[in-house]
Amino acid sequence: MMLCAATICCGDTDAQSLQSLLKIFGGSKTEQKAEPKTEIPAAEQLQGRWVYQALDMTYTGDSTIASVAVASAKTQLSTVADKSGLVAGRDYMELGADGTAKLVSGERTATASYSYRPDDGKMTVGMEHGGKKVALTAEVGITDGKLRIMFDAAQLVAEAEKHSDSLKENTYFQMLKAMTEKYPGIMVGAVFGK
Questions:
Q1: What's phi and psi for 174, nearest 5 deg?
Q2: Three-state secondary-structure class, residue 176
Q3: pTM of the prediction?
Q4: β partners of residue 113
Q5: 58: how many CB neighbours lie within 10 A of its CB?
Q6: Helix-helix angle 15-26:64-74, to 10 degrees
Q7: How many other CB atoms are found less than 10 A from the CB of residue 38?
Q8: So what's the pLDDT on residue 186?
Q9: Span 49-78, mean pLDDT?
Q10: Neighbour-count burial for 157-179, b at 16+ CB within 10 Å, e otherwise
């Protein structure tokens, strides 16, 4: 859903107009703030209740066009969260020491399993969808006391397509799939606080 927003936002914009826009802004000099330090948490730091704060999207590749598309899509994430029924400050997840995760959004509750590697900050999340087991890998980090769990968008798109035949007919989803295949490094996820 988050990635559909990226596709919709960039669907009417061609590469030429994006490059023109970048040239306009390329000449301006702005002071950049230092990025806050992100740490890979110890397994014990992950355990407990984490309250949902916001959806997030980043791009770790080197394409200027993809960077602009992701920046544009990121401005739509609050709308995506609203449509999904996610409420900041109310919804939460609980990560147990036994490798279980409980996800609560209003009246909806889901469970999943997880394993975590504190040496590299990789988390594998396992769940069932439509009777099929799904395993997704995320990057985990803590910045300024906020937990960020980010999934590779290409992996999410591939898994979604496996579990929904209707997405094969969805034009926007197929454009999204093409974008994630062409520009690896798009990450989507969420930010949580204690």
A1: -65, -35
A2: helix
A3: 0.77
A4: 100, 126
A5: 17
A6: 90
A7: 15
A8: 94
A9: 91
A10: bebbbeeeeebeeeeebebbbeb
Size of the chain, expressed as the number of residues it contains: 194
Of 87, 84, 93, 91, whose CA–CA distance to 149 is shortest? Answer: 93
Tokens for 91, please give them.
């919804």
Residues 6+ apart with CB under 8 A from 100: 111, 112, 113, 114
- Helices 64-74 and 171-182 cross at an angle (nearest 10°) of 130
Strand, coil or helix: what is 129?
strand
For 90-123, write each residue's pLDDT tens digit: 999 999 999 999 999 999 999 999 999 999 999 9
Using pLDDT thresholds of 50, 70 and 90, give the confidence band for residue 31.
Answer: low
Higher pLDDT: 124 or 30? It is 124
Q: If DSSP codes are grouped into helix, strand and coil, which group holds residue 74?
A: helix
- Output DSSP code: residue 63: -
Q: Are 126 and 112 in contact (CB under 8 A)?
A: yes
